[in-house]
Amino acid sequence: MTDVTAVVECENGPFFVKAVPNRPGGRRDSLVREGEINPHVRPLSPAVLWRAEDSEWVALGFEPIHGRRANFRPGSEDLPTLVDLVNRIGALPLPDVAHDWTETRWDRFVSDEAETPLLRGNSMLYVDINPSNFVIGEDNAWVVDWAWPTRGAAFIDPALLVVQLIAAKRNPADAEAWAGKCDAWTHADSDAVNVFVAATVRMYRAHAERFPDQPWRKAMVDAVESWAEHRGVTVPAA
């Protein structure tokens, strides 16, 4: 969602640069938030080395890293590394800057407002787990693109790992088995997980209906619906 991404070679570089127009709204807010959280998520994330802003643009300059996108598919040797990264996210303390960043993205998709407390918590959440954002290097691995970290229930990040593993053609039982290696998942309340699953089904259905020209969204609907079926969670069509 960043308007400009580039590796800039210069006297003091190189730098990986992300920039967005300097006007109010989600893209600017997300880049500002990424800069604010960065000191608290190193070395899991590449360091922000500088920030720049004028009337037209806001930019962050990151240390460059070298790696490839993670492989979530069956047979991948990356799975232990992915679990380790999710555990490292879960072990991050919640910094003061994130205290008011309550996770609310699923709120409008729950069946009853009384369910929303099940998604609340005081854990630091990443909430953007996908193969492009987990970068595997020769001797290290990183989680990049901290655009919308939030505060919420600890199980949400492992749950999103389950969704991505199913979308990568793993069966739900196998995906949950891998999530079971995540500390936050072992302490998750089953009812809370089921509420999250149902809300995620509704979320992806709504997104797929809104963006019918993006087939990957329908693939995500299929993935999370198969997870709901595995858990015995029924989500009637609207």
Give structural notes.
The chain has 238 residues and is α+β, with helices and mostly antiparallel strands. It is 36% helix and 16% strand. It has seven helices and nine strands; from the N terminus they run E-E-H-E-E-E-H-E-E-E-E-H-H-H-H-H. The strands form three sheets. It has a four-stranded antiparallel sheet, covered by helices on one side. A three-stranded antiparallel sheet has the order 5-7-8, covered by helices on one side. Strands 6-9 form a two-stranded antiparallel ribbon. The radius of gyration is 18 Å and the shape is globular. The model has no long low-confidence stretch (mean pLDDT 96).
Q: Please report the number of helical segments.
A: 7
Counted beta strands: 9
Tell me the overall shape: globular
* Span of the ends, CA to CA: 29 Å
Helix and strand string, N-terminal first? EEHEEEHEEEEHHHHH
Helicity, as a percent range: 25-40%
* Biggest sheet details: 4 strands, antiparallel
Low-confidence stretches: none
Radius of gyration: 18 Å
Major β-sheet strand ordering: 1-2-4-3
Strand-pairing-aware structural class: alpha+beta
Mean pLDDT: 96
Beta-strand proportion = 15-25%
